Amino acid sequence: MQRWRACGVATVMVVAFALGAQTVAAQEEVTVDIRGFLYVPDPVTVTVGTTVTWTNSDFVAHTVTADDHAFDSDLFSRGETYSMTFDAPGSYPYFCIPHGSPGSGMIGVVEVVDSEAEMPVAVPQPAPQPAPAPRPASIPITPRQQVSPAELERNKQAVVGFYTMAFNDKKPAEAVAQYVGPRYTQHNPLAADGPQAFIDFVSGFATAFPDGGVDIKRVIAEGDLVVTHSHFTLNPDDRGSAVFDMFRIENGKIVEHWDVIQPIPETPANDNTMF
Ligand SMILES: [Cu+2]
Fold first, then answer.
1. Hey, where are the domains in the chain?
2. Does domain 23-118 fall into CATH 3.30.1370.10?
3. Are the C-beta atoms of 188 and 205 separated by less than 8 Å?
4. 100 C-alpha to center of ligand 1: Å?
5. CB 195 within 8 A of CB 180
6. So what's the pLDDT on residue 143?
């Protein structure tokens, strides 16, 4: 039975491609990514019998919980997945317990239809073809503003105070009030822009990982920039991640952030640690 069904789907897909038809072939598996406190894509429309698999790509744990609690993943962490097979047509709204509630906050919906004919038509978008940027002849070294040693030291203390209060003392709102300026320009592609998004993100982190935190190993400052090299862990047993954060300081307040995050592997190729 299963074999025949699989063959039928394969045939449909081949025919669809051969005719150049813009129909969406029936899929037996659909994936949804969870990143930046969003379910991507959303909504998803699938046919009856489809298994939807959610993968958590965020630094914090999330849930996939039906509004009526007909299904519930429980908290699952970065890199983990949750799957649910939808056997009846209908609309299945869901939310994340720490970061949403039915209809608001972090929410999504799975629409389950009887047949492919009811699937929304996918219109292929032509891929944009940006002109390749000319490679610079030399590495641009922007002269940064002259800052006194005392001010560099104050900037470093502000950054260390900010991250320690937010991630270790679990007081992100207080940390933002004390250390962040009128804006917080965010360059981490998984995080939304602005001070409130930072507060929401760290609040979620603190709820999901009460024993998680940051151990700042070294701090470098030049001009209006401060860079930290840190060990982030989710709990005492977590190997954690090695993180470079860079902040820009304006009038003594943090106004901009970049970061690079590398999970610490189980079997490193050297014994030097990542710090
Ligand atoms: Cu969540």
1. 23-118, 149-263
2. no
3. no
4. 7
5. yes
6. 63
- This prediction's pTM: 0.57
- Residue 166 is classified by DSSP as I
Nearest-angstrom CA–CA distance, 186 and 173: 16
Amino acid at 244: F
For residue 95, report the distance from its CA to the centre of ligand 1, in Å: 8
Furthest CA-CA distance within the chain: 76
Span from the CA of 124 to the centroid of ligand 1 (angstroms): 31
Q: Ligand 1: distance of its center to the CA of 64 in Å?
A: 8
| Cα(30)–Cα(46) distance, integer angstroms | 8
Say what the pLDDT of residue 5 is. 43
pLDDT given for residue 144 in this prediction: 67
Going from the first residue of the chain to its last (275 residues), give the mean pLDDT of each consecutive group of 10, the final group possibly shorter.
41 37 59 90 94 91 95 94 96 91 89 84 70 69 76 96 97 97 92 91 86 96 96 91 96 96 91 96
Please answer whether residues 240 and 217 qualify as being in contact, where contact means their C-beta atoms are separated by less than 8 angstroms. Answer: no
Helix pair angle (195-208, 172-179), 10° resolution: 150
Sheet holding 50-56, edge to edge: 38-40, 29-35, 50-56, 81-86
Which amino acid is located at 108 in the chain?
Answer: G
Q: pLDDT at position 16, please?
A: 36
Q: Which of 50, 20, 39 is nearest to 118 (CA)?
A: 50
Query: 240 C-alpha to center of ligand 1: Å?
Result: 20
**149-263 carries CATH number 3.10.450.50:** yes
DSSP summary character for residue 56: E
Residues 6+ apart with CB under 8 A from 146: 223
